[in-house]
Amino acid sequence: MSSPLELQRLKLRLQKHEEQNKKRGGLWRQRLERSPSSVPMQTEKREHDRKILTMQKGFAEEAAKHRGELEAGRKEREKMQTDNRFLQHDLAQEAERAKRLNGAGKSRTIAERDTPRKIRKAGLGDGFNDDEVQMFSPIRSRGRDSTPRAGAKRKRSAQDSPIASLSFAKPAPLPRDESTDSAQTMPATLVSPSLATSQNEDTRFIQCLLVYQPFGQSAGALELLCQHHLPANIHRPLSSVLMEALSTSRQTTDSIPLQTVRVLSSLWQRCLDQQHLAPLTLLVDLILFALRHEVPSRYNKLAQDVVPLCLRALELVTMPIVRAHLKGPSALAETLREPSSEQIDADQLTALLEQMCQACSISSELISNFWRMMDFTSSMLLLHKALPYHRVMTGLRILYTSALENSFGAISQNLTDQAQQEKDTVFRLTFAFFDIPSVPADEPPYDEQEIAEFRIMVLEVLNKLCEFNHGSILLATHTHFIGRLVRFVDEQVRKLYSVPPSQHKGELVKPDDHDLVVKTINMSMRILHYLLTTHGDTIDLSEKFSVVVGGYHKFLIGMTRLAFIEQPTVFEDGIEEEVIDAAHSILDAFLTPEDGEAVAQALETPQGSKSVGAVKQRSFTMDEDTMDTDTLPADPD
User: Fold this and answer.
1) If we measure between CA atoms, which residue out of 367, 246, 247, 345 comes closest to residue 296?
2) For residue 258, which of 298, 225, 221 has the smallest C-alpha distance?
3) What is the Cα 338 distance to its own chain's centre?
4) If pLDDT is split at 50, 70 and 90, which confidence band does 25 have?
5) In angstroms, rounded to a whole number, what is the distance separating the alpha carbons of residues 255 and 198?
6) Locate the Rad26-like helical repeats domain: which residues (predicted)?
């Protein structure tokens, strides 16, 4: 047994420990009370979660209410249609029964009302059957129609008239009942079909927005938006700003998707102003989601809100890439790891910019306003070779819409700046004849098909530019365009014999590499022939060829190869007859007879054939090195 002293000592020690614990608890409680962010932040978070749940519950209840009303209206409509069918069936039966009863009663009343008379015999009493005796002369048959009288010709009987005769009797008033009155007053209280459809679409969009989940994310868009705050107001998430703005903007005539885009654009603007780039990808994704629920003819008016934001965000991520491209691959890789490049999705922004551009292209006025919002620097950044292949292709598709009747590219208020910008844009396009976009470090190099499709897109932009007199004059008077186009034709004709055609060409769904090379030749020759025939008086070919090294000889070799294709081989299959004729006409207009003889001598076969006719009967497939270039006519310069 323990002594009383030991028990007393244990009690004192226990009391001491209890006092120490109380002191420690008081200290921790004081620290928590003094902390400015612990308890208030938890309280604010719980309050925010409660508001979100309340809003979601309210939206769900409203959606369920609308669904119930729609279902009740549908059932009521079906019930009314069924009742109408039964009533129509009953009315038809009553009408048929009344018709039968009226017909039988009328015959009975007539029979009862007439006085009985003695039946008269209609027979002749001559001993013959009356039906065997003909009452008229057999010479003229009564079956023949007699000649109508003049009055009968002009007069039309009432039975033959296609219009029913007018009735001068006042029609009897219809029976009046309560159902008819209610049916007549009902349309005044019903909602118009267009308004009801708009409300249904808005409700459906809200439902889709609440459950929308971005690609590659495990949470919903609104839940992700709750995690972002503006630096100027860190206690209020962006989702609350969005929902509050949507709930207070019901007075406008825009639909809910358009209102959503306007609110998201406002948040986007505030994020850029406060240099807060983290939520930009989510905001742009929500804008694209909202635009998918609208038609382009309605959301093209949002271009003035969205386009400047796209250009501003693209400049933040594209300009560092262009500058790093000039320094080398290591600087470019370091730039791609910067926060701005990781927080801003440039592909997403270019897709949104292209979508707004296509929406504005339905009207010349809208597309002109679009290109007034585009600045020259941004449009050139979209075509820079430092960008990936798919992004430059998107930039070319956007630039395709800028070929207008009086302008090309970004529209400036200063006419002098506008003319210089158009020349610089064409100059950038001519680089695409020989340069290709840069290949990312972790991707394989581009194949021949991708390169050919890239240059075909460039030629489509130039072909669109030739549709207007302003654009064709711009190309014809450009210092470098025709010379570089001739060089491109010569290189593509040479590639025609180095890229083998497919052995299963008829079985391919898409064109092979050789077919794409042929297409580039056909498109280039059409553009060149159009410019030389339309503006030939103002074009000095010698001056155009001087900007390219060996431009004059490249012109002769390329045009001659195309002009002497008379029986196309497998390599030359697909070259259009119009292209061959165009090459002939260009040579005839540019060369003198002496130059033509020199070209014919250059085309002689290595076996020593001197017959120009023999040369013309075969397809010329030699390389440039096998031609006797010394016999070609000298450069005029």
Assistant:
1) 367
2) 298
3) 33
4) confident
5) 7
6) 309-532
Q: Which two tokens stand for residue 379?
A: 């449009």
Distance CA 457, CA 519 (A): 11
Residues 393-415 as b/e (b if ≥16 CB within 10 A, e otherwise) read bbbbbbbbbbbbeebbbbbbeee
Q: What is the pLDDT of residue 198?
A: 60
Separation between Cα atoms, residue 490 and residue 469, nearest integer Å: 27
Q: How far is CA 102 from CA 88, 98, 173, 175, 363, in A?
A: 21, 6, 22, 21, 68
- What is the 8-class DSSP label of residue 563? H
Would you state the pLDDT for residue 132?
Answer: 57
Domain range annotation of the chain = 295-443, 446-637
Paired residues of 229 in beta bridges? 237
CB 305 within 8 A of CB 356: no
Long-range contacts of 494-502 (CB under 8 A, 24+ apart): 494/623, 494/624, 496/521, 496/571, 496/572, 497/571, 497/621, 497/623, 499/448, 501/570, 501/571, 501/573
Task: Give the Cα separation of 96 and 394 in Å (integer).
Answer: 72
Scanning the structure block, which residue is given the tokens 């989940």? 213
CA distance 402 to 371: 7
